[in-house]
Amino acid sequence: MTGWRNWAGDQACSPASLERPKDTDAVTAAVTRAAAEGRGVRVAGSGHSFTDAVLTDGTLLSLERMRRVLDADPAGGLVRVEAGITLRELNEALSELGLALENLGDIDVQSVAGAIATGTHGTGGRLRNLSAAIESVELVTADGSTVELHPAEDPDGWRAARVSVGALGVVTAVTLRAVPAFTLEGVDSSLPLEEALERLGELIDGNDHFELFTFPHSELALTRTNNRVQGPPQPRSRGREWFDDMLVRNHLFGACCRIGRARPRLIPRINRTISRAAGTSRRVDRSYEIFASPRRVRFTEMEYAIPRGRAAEAVRAVRAVSDDGGFDICFPIEVRFVAPDDALLSPAAGRDTCHIAVHSYEGMEWEPYFRAVEAVMDGYEGRPHWGKRHFQTAQTLSRRYPEWESFAAVRARLDPGGLFANQYVDRVLGSAAAAPA
Question: What CA–CA distances, in Å, run from 32 to 29, 164, 170, 191, 340?
């Protein structure tokens, strides 16, 4: 028996069997064997989800050996990859082909399958989340068969598989659409928080990618804009890269968090100091180098998607909770924006969306704070990020997704017995037995 633990270190399980298949045939064999032995099946990516979505005492599959680029059409922009490839590896492979993903989040260590399963996104008011780039999905289903879900042949299956929480089967490969490689200019600066909130529409629509961070107890917003520019990348020297990404954003920030954990009464002063010291910086580099940065400071996270038009009032409400609720919070509130998409369970399905994320440093109490913020998000028709902590159930979530029953029907068709369920899946999607046939 071999154990599994996520990146944050706060989710762990001891499956009866932990397997690392090397190809689709090996996945099929593992699924067939698990079904015959009466074991449930879950799949682990790189462990960057904060929920118990992976946990199982049955068969756990790791796709870390399935990370090849299978086919590429640089002229058409279509690339087929195995599901275990990480976003970082995919970005580098695409760059060699003169291609890039249109939008990315700020972490690139996730597996492609894990990222799309949970609705991972970046920011950009005119841009959709990562799963919107998926043209087709190869899936090993509960009966051991392999299906290719494509919009032309199975539109509901394709729309379900693009954000599925691993509840439909094992994704073994995806075909995705890339765009020509591009250079971004990334600018970090600060504004008074109220000014940023009053100008939100202008800041979102006036930039390719806009996001803001605001620390509890600080009156500043730390803003980040990424915009396409002509000309070649201008990568930083290795020394500058280490100073910015490792020393400042990881080592020094981590030290501040440790001080705050040891002496919580200092947190407001620490947060204000960090905000004032942030300053302004500018970078010009390949898109994926601007989007993502290394994370060494451990934390747990909750994130909600709400209608974009209510973003400013929601941020003010969350700040009221973080400032006045008696919570010790070292991390900033993160605010990002994405365009609508049509995946059945995408948090951004059918509406312009604002994502608001809250975090708690490792070893600090997080649940009361997250529950208080979730109560705020409930008032804004909030949909939780599927890979981050929340306390919702199928009963509370079904009202927030117009095509909830369509997803349930696809699940009943592909996994009628609930082979790919676990406690998390049953809690947030309902039991497979209850899904419509």
Answer: 5, 21, 12, 56, 37
Cα 414 from Cα 229, distance rounded (Å): 45
Distance CA 310, CA 214 (A): 17
- Residues 278-323 have pLDDT tens digits of 989 999 999 999 999 999 999 999 999 999 999 999 999 999 999 9
User: Terminus-to-terminus CA distance in the chain, angstroms?
Assistant: 36
Contact of 315 with 356, CB cutoff 8 Å: yes
DSSP code of residue 242: I
Residue 166: strand, helix, or coil: coil
Which pLDDT score, from 0 to 100, does residue 437 have? 42
The Cα–Cα gap between 259 and 328 comes to 12
**Structure letter (DSSP) for residue 236:** P
Spatial contact of 256 and 276, defined as CB atoms under 8 Å apart: no
Element (H, E) at 334: strand 333-338
Residue 27 to residue 33: CA distance in whole angstroms: 10
Three-state secondary-structure class, residue 14: coil
Cβ atoms of 272 and 179 closer than 8 Å = no
The reported pLDDT for the residue numbered 434 is 53
Model pLDDT for residues 105-122, shown as the tens digit of each residue: 999 999 999 999 999 999
What is the C-alpha to C-alpha distance for residues 195 and 203, in angstroms, rounded to an integer? 11
**The amino acid at 1:** M
Spans of the chain below 50 pLDDT: 1, 436-437
Compute the distance between CA of residue 226 and CA of residue 284 in angstroms, rounded to an integer.
9
SS3 72: strand
How confident is the model at residue 2, as a pLDDT? 75
CB of 432 closer than 8 Å to CB of 415: yes
Are residues 127 and 405 in contact, defined by beta-carbon separation less than 8 angstroms? Answer: no
pLDDT of residue 241: 94
Do residues 4 and 33 make contact, with C-beta atoms less than 8 angstroms apart?
A: no
